[in-house]
Amino acid sequence: MSKVILTGDRPTGPLHVGHYVGSLKRRVELQNSGEYDKIFIMIADAQALTDNADNPEKVRQNIIEVALDYLSCGLDPAKSTLFIQSQIPELCELSFYYMNLVTVSRLQRNPTVKSEIQMRNFETSIPVGFFTYPISQAADITAFHATTVPVGEDQAPMIEQTKEIVHKFNSVYGETLTDPNILLPDNKVCLRLPGIDGKAKMSKSLNNCIYLSDSEADVKQKIMSMFTDPGHLRVQDPGKVEGNPVFIYLEAFCRDEHFERYCPDYQNLQEMEDHYARGGLGDVKVKKFLNNVMQEELEPIRKRRKEFEKDIPEIYRILKEGSEAAEAEAARTLSEVKNAMKINYFEDQALIQEQAERFASDK
Ligand code: TRP
């Protein structure tokens, strides 16, 4: 069986370093591993519209931001198909048929949808499109016969729901769809990087993100103003490493070799953490180190972004070409689905023959 990746992001803002350590970096590694036969990376604009119906301009503006972030992180259109969800009408058709295989109460139990409903104060007026987006996500995944879906932990309920739809479809209509597997980030801290204010999640509305598209000066300013241990008032005080955003970021970004280059007082993160916990290590020194480590990682991304920004029409051309290739793939799957459901009337010679005979013998 061929190995196929499908994943994507909602274009509701530029991507931040949380996206990078949580998924983008991994995608590029998977892409370059040569282990996958096909890779589809989707800008999920239709899904973004399920809770931004009144703000299509936001989605429209951010498609190019996300595309630039993808390309500058190293996703390569020669190896991965980059496409825009709304340009693949087959996904809507698949969703429509899958809707018959899912109950309202099952959707209500989806924990991610549940918490999003609360976050958006949708309790009394949930848009139907939003409520059913896990079904459309199942269409995204199955349309490409994806075997592997690399996503963050919060997406686990979606993959679970997709598997249920696949099993149900295959048991009712015969083996047609491919059962996908989730691929979670391997580094625990990368599951969810906190904001620079120490809040649990980086979010545009909280204004606590470091973006991949931020300038060197912005990144530095954000790191130097980062929340640390509020009890660590003087350098000589013992500090708390656990839950301290600066150390969480270091766990996500730094490797032993960085110490040689930028902070030879220590051999590895453990030694630095021990010193901080003992007392005698100031926040500024740790932050300066983090800044060096992060700038080293972000600089090549920024450089590539600047190059891609020089030819924006070319980026749209890449997305158009990707969308055409993705549509061809989804159309094949839709036709398999319609065959399995026997709603392919005009290709079904046996049906036409059978009906002809029935009416002939009626006479
Ligand atoms: N729900 C994902 C997010 O919020 C985006 C997405 C849409 C997706 N369809 C998908 C991810 C299919 C993986 C597979 O980021």
Summarize the structure.
Helix content is 56%, strand content 6%. With 363 residues, the protein is mostly helical. The chain folds into two domains: 4-192 and 312-352, 3-Layer(aba) Sandwich (Rossmann fold); 214-308, Tyrosyl-Transfer RNA Synthetase (Orthogonal Bundle).
Set out the fold topology:
Blueprint: E1 4-9, H1 17-33, E2 38-43, H2 45-49, H3 56-73, E3 81-84, H4 90-98, H5 104-108, H6 111-119, H7 128-131, H8 133-143, E4 148-150, H9 156-173, E5 181-183, H10 216-224, H11 245-253, H12 256-262, H13 269-278, H14 283-309, H15 312-341, H16 349-362
Parallel strand pairs: 1-2, 2-3, 4-5
Helix pairs in contact: 3-14, 4-8, 4-15, 8-9, 10-14, 11-14
Protein name: Tryptophan--tRNA ligase
Pfam families: tRNA-synt_1b
GO molecular function: ATP binding; tryptophan-tRNA ligase activity
Q: What oligomeric state best describes the polypeptide chains here? A: single chain
What is the level-2 CATH architecture name of the largest domain? 3-Layer(aba) Sandwich
> What is the strand content?
5-15%
CATH class of the largest domain: Alpha Beta
Order of helices and strands: EHEHHEHHHHHEHEHHHHHHH
Derived from helix and strand composition plus strand pairing, the structural class reads mainly alpha
In this entry the ligands are: tryptophan
Distance between the termini: 51 Å
Helix amount: 55-70%
Mean pLDDT: 94
* Bulk shape: elongated
Low-pLDDT ranges? none
